[in-house]
Amino acid sequence: MTFIEALNSQDLEKIRKFPKADLHNHFVLGGSREYIFNKTGYKIKSITTPLKSMGEMDSWSSKYIGNHFNSPEGRKLLIEATFAQAKFDGVTVLEIGEDVWGLGEFFDNDIEKMIFCFQEANARIAPEIELRLQIGLSRHCSVDYLMNCLSHFWGHKEFYSIDLYGDELAQSIANFIPIYDKAAENGLVLKAHVGEWGTAKDIITAVELLHLNEVQHGIAAVQDENVIEYLIENNIRLNITPSSNVLLGRVSDMAHHPIAQLYHRGVDVTIGSDDVLIFNSDISKEYLRLYQSGCLTKEELDDIRINGLRDRKNKASHRSTNNGARIYKEL
Ligand SMILES: [Zn+2]
Q1: Which CATH code is given to the segment(s) 19-330?
Q2: How far, in Å, from the CA of 40 to the mean position of ligand 1?
Q3: I want to staple 69 with a disulfide (CB 3.0 to 4.6 A). Which of 6, 74, 236, 295 is the partner?
Q4: What residue spans define the domains of the chain?
Q5: How large is the C-alpha radius of gyration of the chain?
């Protein structure tokens, strides 16, 4: 059976069997409901109808997440739950990581301990998954504070990428230039959340100032043909999260999600989950929903899936590893 046939059958179990990437996943909210329930007896419900305000999302967070996981053990459990979820979903490339403030809060400011926690959970729960460890930044934090936290992270080759998230309108993107310059020196893939709440122009500004390789969301690009062309010319990848966009009211419905237009124009797009626990958005469900809504054809979705599995950073080395060869053979 091929992935195209699996989509055609509209059978999630079959879709889950094929390798997929998740390059837009906030692990704190990326876990398996079942795993968390089995370990804690604690039930987390997802959102099913679009939110009317960000206040509604905050009340969801305080009800279901609150302080329940605010301990080293709680954080560890969420990391494990995220690998369990990705394994169940057939995700074979997973890009996740801790927010820089979490290092002091949950790992005694010990970077080796933090890295070990992710790698150990990876090896124990889902060794078939390629972990791309990410450094996370919240946009509302001051750059001085972030730089201070980041001093523990620089030079650690285990990190693959850096991402900026949180309130897109909290402060000017230009403030983050020194951080991204340093991240580029460290050889990290440069990513940031832009063009979800902001405009198409914000996407170009962020890419130019921070030299981004990839944009989380970036769906506002669809409003401006020049921005679309800019993304294509500069080979900028967009890691798009359809269910999240619909439930946060950024897009009217799945059928009209701009991923179709961006893909048809030739933008490099991938499909991510954003927050599995909030949006009930695992990767297999995202593919199925895009197919069932008529947004993209099954052949197009397969093309996007295969594209997401490409390692743009380590093109040459990827194929030479056993893991890489295995993934490519299974495509
Ligand atoms: Zn996100």
Answers
A1: 3.20.20.140
A2: 26
A3: 74
A4: 19-330
A5: 19
